[in-house]
Each structure stands twice: as structure tokens, then as C-alpha cells.
Amino acid sequence: MLSLSRWSPRRLLLAWIAYWFVALIVALGPATIAALPVIADEHGHGSINASFGNGGFSLNVLRGSTTVWHGEASLMAIAFWFAVPPLALWVAWVWRRARAGASMSTGDVAASTRPR
């Protein structure tokens, strides 16, 4: 089941989707947890600011005048985490399938050349 050479393209796509889902939870989970009390504050003593500029993306969660959570990431870092791990999984998948196909064809040739 976990052998990459036996994965279908559908399973590879599902692995990518699962990776992106977990990456979003890891990246935005702490911000969401920090933002929930600010959102639920009846008196409106807080703010959530998101911005995009030269440095990349930035997110601030403020409760009153106190910063509860701050995070920032460059566009290059976001692109890296979005694209490189799924690309590496795809390369490993193609390589394992090619090796499995080569070993099967080599095994078939060896079996067909044996005397009967």
C-alpha cells in the first residue's frame, strides 16, 4: 500500500492534497487560535491585519494594543513550501515506477530465456 511504485496517479494527487491541507493547518493554525478570542470579543477590542508588500505576506493579531500573534513569510518561502515537497514526491514516484518497470521487464526477459 505504501510502495510508491504501486501508487496510481490518483493516489499521488490525494497525497499532494493531504500535504497542502496539513501545511495550511500548520502554517495558519496558530494564527487562527490566536484570532478566535479577538473575533469573539463582544467589545471589539482587537484587530486582525493581513498585508502583502515587498517583504511578502504578513499577518498580525492584536488584542487591544498588544500583539497576540505575528507571522510573516516571503513569497519565495511560500512558493517553496507549496511546490517543492509535492514535486519531490512526484520525482520519487516516477523514479520508483521506472525502476519497478525495468525490474519487471528484466525479470520477464530472464524468465523467457531459461531452458524449459
Strand fraction: 15-25%
Helices and strands: which structural class?
alpha+beta
Strands of the widest sheet, in order across it, are 1-2-3
**What is the residue-averaged pLDDT?**
86
> In whole angstroms, how far apart are the ends?
35 Å
Q: Please estimate the helix content.
A: 55-70%
Quaternary state reads single chain
Helical segment tally?
2
The major sheet is characterized as: 3 strands, antiparallel
Poorly predicted segments? none
Q: Kindly provide the radius of gyration, computed on alpha-carbon positions and rounded to a whole number of angstroms.
A: 24 Å
- Identify the overall geometry: elongated
* Sequence of secondary-structure elements: HEEEH
Count of spatially separate domains = 1
**Strand elements, count:** 3
Describe the structure.
This protein has 116 residues and is of the alpha+beta class. It has one domain (4-104). It contains 2 helices and 3 strands. The chain has a 3-stranded antiparallel β-sheet. β1 (46-53) and β2 form a beta hairpin. α1 (9-40) runs antiparallel to α2 (75-113). It is elongated and about 70 Å long. The two termini are 35 Å apart.
Which key phrases capture this entry?
elongated; 116 residues; alpha+beta; 3 strands
Please give a quick description of this structure.
The chain contains two helices and three strands; from the N terminus they run H-E-E-E-H. The protein has helices at 9-40, 75-113; strands spanning 46-53, 56-63, 66-73.
